[in-house]
Amino acid sequence: MPSQTQPRLAIRPWHIVLLLSLVYLIAVFLLNGADARVFVTLGTRFTEGDPAGTEGYDGQFTYFIAVDPSGAAALIDVPAYRYQRILLPVLARLLALGQLALIPWALVLINLVSLAGGTLLVERLLAREGISPWYALTYGLFAGVFMAVRLSLAEPLAYALVLLAIDAERRGRIWAAAIALALAALTRETTLLFAAGYVVYLFTQRRWGTGVLLGAIAALPFALWQIALALQFGSPGIGSGGAMATPFELIPFMGFVRILTEGSLSVFIILGALLIPGVILPTLWSLWQGIEAFLHGQRHPYIFLLLANAAVIPFVPFSTWREPLGMLRFIVGLVIGLVLYAAWRHQARALRYSTLWIISLLFAIASG
Fold first, then answer.
1. For the ranges 42-46, 241-245, 269-273, 357-361, which has the lowest average pLDDT?
2. Residue among 366, 326, 328 at smallest CA distance from 24
3. Predicted model pTM
4. What phi-psi label fits residue 57: left (phi over 0), alpha (psi between -120 and 50 degrees) or beta?
5. DSSP secondary structure letter of residue 357
6. How many beta carbons lie within 10 A of that of residue 31, not counting itself?
7. 111 and 149 Cβ atoms separated by less than 8 Å
8. What is the number of other CB atoms lying within 10 angstroms of the CB of residue 204?
9. In this predicted model, what pLDDT tens digit does every residue of 27-36 receive, in sequence order?
10. At 58, phi and psi to the nearest 5?
């Protein structure tokens, strides 16, 4: 039940997230010649077709699709993979009214609103459990979503839709939740883990029909879009990444180990300082907590959302582990799952430790 004792806050966590994000965006804009294209991080390898050129970053593919939805494939490393995240570029093009110069600003605006809105939704979900809304800063200031605003990536919008779905489900609006999950899947495919978690939860409640329908509503648009991509590009978009991506691992955490076996000890130590406390230990804790709760007969959506997001992380590809920001982007679902689970269980220590994820933002900003 929602807490009746939570004080109204003059300054809210989402206010702080919005303010800090605006300050950071303005600084980036001014320090890069006041060119809005800095937010899409273009690389000459793709814009000029120069194999030896600069690589840029993933946001450029969102930008290319928004600029020319039907002709962007020639500028994209793996077209089907990039096009599967279709909702953000389509929304940006619509918001910019087709004006190319406005598209970078549209991407930033959509993600800025999504980040602030997602943080607000975490506040609401925490308050429902009688927990301080300030723990919403763990989400709002986590590098995996905060940096995605600056880089025009899909995470802020995708996970705002996930949080909208969770909030809707908590208020008994299961079909609104299913629609939000369907939109999230068309924004970033990893959000389907939340749909899977809900389906398993509903099955444990013997709500077979509801579980099947929720899964179908959440996954069917994505599946149909994958078919369309396969017909257009010769293969579906679902996979482990763009160009030079490695496959998912079969041995748990082997992708992390490969940083040492296929790289160097110094790189392994440096990345390990971020990835062990920031990814591996929270994953192991989440698996332990979720399995223990399940074995003790507890049934709550947050158990299954946590397990669904934690279970896939040990098998993440080496190509994701070796890129710290890519890994932080991948675990946004884990961050949400852990914070909400700890709030439901009133695990104060876990909530306090979760705020250490905010440190990742300092690492990301320092890295550029």
1. 241-245
2. 366
3. 0.94
4. beta
5. G
6. 9
7. yes
8. 15
9. 999 999 999 9
10. -60, -30
Q: What is the pLDDT of residue 343?
A: 98
Over the stretch 271-283, which tens digit does the pLDDT of each residue have? 999 999 999 999 9
Question: Which phi-psi region, left, alpha or beta, contains residue 87 (left: φ > 0; alpha: ψ -120 to 50)?
Answer: alpha
- CA R_g for the chain: 20
Express each pLDDT in 218-256 by its tens digit.
999 999 999 999 999 999 998 867 767 889 999 999 999
Q: Tell me the C-alpha distance between 250 and 229, whole Å.
A: 27
Q: Where are the alpha helices (DSSP H) in 234-280?
A: 254-261, 265-275
Under the banding of pLDDT at 50, 70 and 90, the label for residue 1 is very low
pLDDT at 43 over 60: yes
d(CA 16, CA 9): 12
How many Cα atoms within 13 Å fall on the side-chain side of residue 18? 15
Burial class (CB in 10 A: 0-12, 13-18, 19+), 189: buried
Q: What are the residue boundaries of the structural domains of the chain, listed by start?
A: 13-366
Query: 38 with 24: CB under 8 angstroms?
Result: no
Question: Is 5 a residue whose pLDDT tops 80?
Answer: no
Distance from chain centroid for Cα 58:
14
Contact indicator for 343, 300 with CB cutoff of 8 Å: no
* Cβ neighbours around 109 below 10 Å, total: 16
| Dist. CA 168–CA 150, nearest whole Å | 28
Q: What number of CA atoms fall less than 13 Å from residue 30's CA on the CB side?
A: 6
Q: How far apart are the first and last CA of the chain?
A: 43
